[in-house]
Amino acid sequence: MKPILILPILAVFMLPGCNRSTDGNGTGHPAAGVPANYGVQTGGTPVATALTYVGKNSCNDCHPKETELYKGSHHDLAMQEANSDTVLGNFNNVTFSYNNITSRFFQRDGRYFVHTDGSNGELADFEIKYTFGITPLQQYLIEFPGGRLQALSITWDSRSRAAGGQRWFHLYPDEKIDFTDELHWTGNNQNWNYMCAECHSTGLNKNYDPDSNSYHTEWIEIDVTCEACHGPGSRHVELAREQPPAGLATMAGAGLPVVFNPARQDQWIFKDNSAIANLDTVRTTDLQLDTCARCHSRRTTIDSKAVYGKPLHDTHSVSLLEPGLYHPDGQVDDEVYIYGSFVQSKMYAAGVNCSDCHDPHSARLRIDGNGLCGQCHRAELFDSAQHHFHAVGTDAAQCISCHMPAKNFMVIDNRHDHSFRIPRPDLSIKTGSPNPCNQCHQDESPQWAVAAIKQWYGKVTYDFHFAEALAAARANEPDAAVKLLRVVDDTGLPAIVRATAMTHLGAYLGPDNIQSALTGLNSTDALLRSASLSALAGLSYADRLPVMEELLADPVKSVRLNAARLLAPFYKNNLPQEQKLLLDAVLEEYIDAQLENSDRAYANVNLGNLYIDLQRYAMAESAFKRAVREESNFLPAYLNLAELHRLQGQEAQAESALRQGIDQNPRAALLYHALGLALVRQNKHAEALTHLKKATNLAPEDARFGLVYGIALNSLGNATEALSILTAVYQKHPSNRDLVLTLATIHRDIGNFEAAYDYARQLVQLSPANDPQAAELLKAIQNRLDME
């Protein structure tokens, strides 16, 4: 077993919107005047003078309109000190019960408290230090030793009573979260310092100390202010003070690290009676989108220093359209914070920016209702019953009902998908992706919705959609490679879609499609270059170096880091000096990126895996043990620690690491499976079978557990029970090639040639056309049948 590679693309969860998830004495605090290293002008040009933060009050006099819009916005109220002006929840000695625990909210000496279960499960009083967000819900932050702030999972519904609000509710109402669960409010997945702080405060420095496992988190301002987007403003303020009043209007953001489009100089215009407006200029930068996406995306921070004006992928690794985050057709499944869905859209491709729809200072929509879409889509054509076939003025007639379907996160926070897609109920039939027709008409089938659309619009032809490829890859279907290649090679598709397909293609890499992955290395899009690297990870080391080494000098950090990680096994080879120096430099960047997140287990596992490749085994062991300390439920920490011991011939220590993991995670099938394999290596076959069986029983949906258990039974001479297990798994996974091969082989070996022949025929159908193994097996079994 190879170490499980956890590249820095695991996403940050933020609150509000968290799905899972200070100083040494406990509280984060302002750090006014902290230098911001060196700012960058629009486009990333270094500024010669060190810049400092000046605070939002420095902006008020010259920017009164923007200041007024900003007041009371979600950004303005992103985080506040808890007091009578900011706390919205009912703390008048009220109670709330959840999972057999009754919590009480009360006040004492003008301060706010909750009496609830702590990290040990015992009830105690906890003071509310900060409020978090404002509507439709407000969370509360509680101070812990080691500089930690934790977000309470019992949350205040700040909507009106008429809307169902003015009540306490739990973020996980359908689960039973207690102090042992990873989602408990005292755990890492509800930790403000890592999960939330970067995007809810301005000029934040997390200041995590891995040695003491503590934080000294500081901020310039507690909420999201002007400098969160425009960067440190000291030079801008200096220039403004030097100007006579008449000259201020000509400054246009001079001295600011980031300047957007202050006068909205580009315009959307209808040309030649077109139905949809076009931009009168060509946008050549994603500066605004990248700035918003630093927080409004599912991503991991890889560089928190001097981020202003840099491309998003230079400071963050963004999640692709991964299972659990997105449906196969790219619709939002989990909370992904807008960016990943928006960059799939035709709007983005046409040049639409966030501020075309949202006022950047108030964060509100520029126009309510369909009028917002009517800025660019002629109302007489699109805001009509002839287009949407619903009663005008109803919710169903709103553009967003069909083109931006919504989903509740955090129980009551209704978020709209921003991919602006045309409803495709046919994809619900093919891939299981939802569609807005059936979200409203829940009593009807997708087939009914398809028929309704055909009735409205006449003959509708549904072309191949990338969802079919991603669904095939997720299900490991035989034709997945062909479909993925079709997506990868389609340059008209969004880059995030092609990049997602490219990462899947890595599992099917062969002579027929390797060129597509090699071509992707030269893409102008950073996501696609990085995904192409990942797709080529299966190349031998000798083949990997010549095609990847150039990307060690890629201008975008997330690409460089991926290249370095995949080339790290070369480090001990006799590389030319120039290559070794370059690899050295980027590996240092990679290490820094992991240290940026060393308060989480995945980053320490990444470090441990790197140190294994560099043959620094003591450092690898320390990293894996830090990962276990950080998150005792992070299974790769135990698995990779065990693998490290195995590599060093320390089978007893490997077994011990896995048993430690099972003690902490007694229902983790993967750990029982790994322990079973470790015992097999020690010739403890009877005990190994017990653990392999346990893994199969805990996760019957995972084909590999049943497959390995069946093979183990057969190897110990119990072919009958092995076939019983393998047949049951096959019924759930009939397209699993390894499973079909195993069934064919065992039936052949015990003389069941007819059954073996049936499975061998299926194997041929599941195998690539140029794979001789399946054809030879089928032919050999046919020969035996002919001899009968």
Protein described:
Helix content is 41%, strand content 10%. It is an alpha+beta fold and 788 residues long. Among the domains are: 29-226, no CATH class; 268-424, no CATH class; 465-538. Strands 2, 3, 4, 5, 6, 7, 8, 9 and 10 form a nine-stranded antiparallel β-sheet that branches. Strand 7 and strand 8 form a beta hairpin. It starts with 28 loop residues before the first strand and ends with a helix.
Write the layout of secondary structure elements.
Elements: E1 29-30, H1 64-70, E2 79-81, E3 94-98, E4 101-108, E5 111-117, E6 123-132, E7 137-144, E8 148-151, E9 154-157, E10 167-170, H2 192-195, H3 197-200, E11 208-209, E12 214-215, E13 218-219, H4 226-230, H5 234-242, E14 268-269, E15 278-279, H6 287-293, E16 299-301, H7 312-315, E17 316-318, H8 339-342, H9 346-350, H10 354-357, H11 379-382, H12 385-388, H13 399-403, E18 406-409, E19 413-416, H14 425-431, H15 436-440, H16 446-457, H17 466-474, H18 480-488, H19 495-505, H20 514-520, H21 526-535, H22 541-548, H23 557-567, H24 577-596, H25 601-613, H26 617-630, H27 635-647, H28 651-664, H29 669-681, H30 685-698, H31 703-715, H32 719-732, H33 737-749, H34 753-766, H35 772-787
Parallel strand pairs: 1-13
Antiparallel strand pairs: 2-6, 3-4, 4-5, 5-6, 6-7, 7-8, 7-9, 9-10, 11-12, 14-15, 16-17, 18-19
Helix pairs in contact: 14-16, 17-18, 17-19, 18-19, 19-21, 20-21, 21-23, 23-24, 24-25, 25-26, 25-27, 26-27, 27-28, 27-29, 28-29, 29-30, 30-31, 31-32, 31-33, 32-33, 33-34, 34-35
